[in-house]
Amino acid sequence: MLLALCASSAVGCSTVRPLDEGRRCPTEAACATVHPPGIADPNSPDFHVNLIRALAFDLSKCQHCHGDDFAGGTAQKSCLGCHEQGVTACTTCHGQPPETGAHLAHGKRFDCTACHVKPMVYTDVGHLFAEDGTVIDKPRITFGELANASLHAGDRAAPAAIEDDSCKNVYCHGDTFHDGNAKLTQPDWSGGSASAACGTCHGIPPSSHTRTNCAECHPKVADSNYNLVAGGPHVDGKVSLGDESGTCLACHPKLSGAHTAHTSAPHRLRPPLACTECHVVPAEVTSPGHIDHTTPQVFPAGWSGIAAAGGAMPAFDPPNGTCSNVYCHGVANVPSWNGDESAAVCGACHGIPPADSAHATSKGLGDCYKCHPSTIDATGSLIVGATSTHLNGVVDGP
Ligand code: HEC
Ligand code: HEC
Ligand code: HEC
Ligand code: HEC
Ligand code: HEC
Ligand code: HEC
Ligand code: HEC
Ligand code: HEC
Ligand code: HEC
Ligand code: HEC
Q: Is residue 8 very low, low, confident or very high in pLDDT (cuts 50, 70, 90)?
């Protein structure tokens, strides 16, 4: 067996002689002749790493003399002095991970299984040896679940793969997003850190987006300055929206200004208003008209609600936070969305009574019911509840 070895070894064969099975070395000098002198010298062509590779990693050949546990055996030379973790440990032949290519860049977060089949023991089929026992001479890339993830139906043309040192169709690098704003979605394994910069895998923002403040919709992943949130769910195979509750409230836990005043109607001027009275309410997050604008859409084109009753053309002025031409408030008035409650008191929207020919100025609250009985009672209180007709879009009169 060792003779055959010798025949394939260019160096030192003359000094090597076979040892009988089970024989113990009588002297240290005698033992030295088993291997060429360079067997433990990393600079020698006879270094045992080369021997092992030439033997196609068949370590049983060494165990024969050095013991099944490599602790010395009949050779009385332990391997474990140098290989403290054991000869077949995962770190003996290569690092976990190796320091090659982009291994260290991925190493902290991704297990080998993200890109390889990981052996339990070094002899597992597919690691060093093929099914037929021959040595596999190339590392194998077998991309895992994340690299093959998909966000939208039809977004990936083919499974993740590596060709000519470059990764293709890999989800993690955004190659399946087809995002025109992304700079580098097929990175080179040996290409350095360029592929880790913001804007490489997907645009900032992606080309499908209108809005640029990631934190507005992805607060668990990025802040308003495009810094990633430490430990956040970035590159985990799904899009993180809002507080991740999966409901509309995920991004709308608390609404601004006079929302509650309108949607809960604490002033009892009329029943609560639905969201649709001022907005087009999206069926889904990505429905048209929702997040495809840079400002919230109030009274958008095509919408209809009570604010447009009587032919009014309501408008919201974002910089000033005011509404104008709103039927409900009297078209001449300009109430403030973030103002105080003065817009909800009697007299704010119309006079008590209104100053027009239908009303004598002498009339007071106690008189209104005479001509508006479904709206107001004899004590001058608005009638609230299911039969309420105040602020319903039509004048309920005599
Ligand atoms: C026929 C028995 C035999 C076989 C098979 C054998 N060795 Fe050895 N090996 C020895 C003996 C004996 C010594 C001690 C020589 C000496 O005293 O330096 C030794 C020494 C070594 C040393 C130097 C140890 C040290 O502490 O300096 C290394 C390294 C080594 N062997 C590696 C291997 C490897 C790797 C294999 C399998 C490919 C192998 N040996 C197969 C008998 C054997
Ligand atoms: C004098 C220290 C020393 C002794 C003794 C020693 N080795 Fe090594 N061994 C090394 C060094 C150094 C390396 C190379 C490690 C590296 O490149 O990081 C190595 C590498 C290896 C490798 C990795 C091979 C590869 O393909 O990368 C194996 C397997 C191995 N030794 C087996 C053995 C066996 C079996 C014995 C005992 C018979 C043994 N070694 C004894 C120092 C030693
Ligand atoms: C992000 C993907 C990825 C991860 C994670 C990864 N590898 Fe690799 N690995 C590669 C690629 C790509 C190559 C080079 C393939 C080629 O050259 O064809 C490679 C090559 C290797 C090689 C051959 C030596 C080399 O550097 O070319 C070894 C050994 C290896 N990987 C071990 C590991 C181990 C062990 C782990 C886990 C601790 C790991 N890899 C994690 C992608 C990965
Ligand atoms: C006897 C040497 C040796 C031992 C021990 C060893 N490996 Fe490897 N490993 C290799 C070689 C050789 C390759 C192929 C890369 C190459 O060609 O450079 C490799 C490749 C890998 C790869 C890349 C995928 C592949 O199979 O090509 C992974 C992952 C890996 N090893 C994990 C491990 C783990 C985990 C252990 C411990 C259970 C381990 N290795 C023990 C020699 C070894
Ligand atoms: C106004 C809300 C909103 C803002 C702001 C926003 N996103 Fe998104 N983003 C979404 C929604 C909703 C999806 C899910 C789209 C889908 O499922 O079709 C998404 C999906 C993504 C995706 C997955 C790619 C894809 O094709 O779906 C990436 C990457 C992304 N956003 C990055 C960003 C970055 C980077 C920013 C900041 C520069 C940002 N987003 C700002 C709402 C937003
Ligand atoms: C290595 C590729 C890569 C780089 C570099 C990258 N991203 Fe991403 N990013 C993704 C992937 C893949 C997604 C898809 C969603 C997921 O799996 O988390 C994503 C999604 C996002 C999202 C949407 C929320 C979510 O679910 O993760 C935001 C926000 C985001 N990235 C911000 C950033 C910022 C800010 C940077 C730069 C600091 C950055 N990304 C750099 C790959 C990358
Ligand atoms: C009376 C009209 C009105 C009603 C009813 C209304 N909104 Fe609004 N909404 C507005 C106005 C005006 C703004 C603009 C606020 C700004 O830009 O300062 C707005 C803004 C928003 C915004 C942007 C974020 C914010 O809080 O400013 C969201 C989200 C929103 N509304 C959701 C809703 C939902 C959900 C409902 C129903 C529960 C609703 N709105 C009912 C008028 C209304
Ligand atoms: C990913 C975060 C997110 C989710 C989830 C979300 N929205 Fe929004 N929504 C926004 C943003 C951002 C705005 C614009 C707010 C602004 O400009 O201040 C908005 C605005 C609105 C508005 C105001 C009108 C408009 O379109 O500008 C309404 C109404 C609204 N959303 C309802 C909903 C409903 C209903 C759902 C559930 C189907 C929902 N939202 C889910 C982020 C989200
Ligand atoms: C004598 C009968 C009468 C009394 C009393 C009366 N109204 Fe009217 N009111 C009318 C008529 C008639 C109209 C319809 C006018 C029109 O269609 O042009 C009207 C319309 C209105 C309108 C609609 C806006 C407008 O100016 O046309 C408001 C608001 C209103 N009344 C409030 C009041 C209040 C408040 C009181 C009590 C202080 C009151 N009315 C008492 C007869 C009356
Ligand atoms: C937010 C604006 C607003 C406030 C505040 C308001 N109203 Fe009105 N009111 C209207 C509008 C608009 C109409 C026009 C008719 C309609 O749509 O019901 C109206 C109509 C009326 C009418 C005529 C009958 C009818 O409903 O058509 C009476 C009476 C009336 N209001 C009494 C009051 C009283 C009393 C108060 C104070 C408790 C009050 N209003 C506060 C907006 C307001």
A: very low
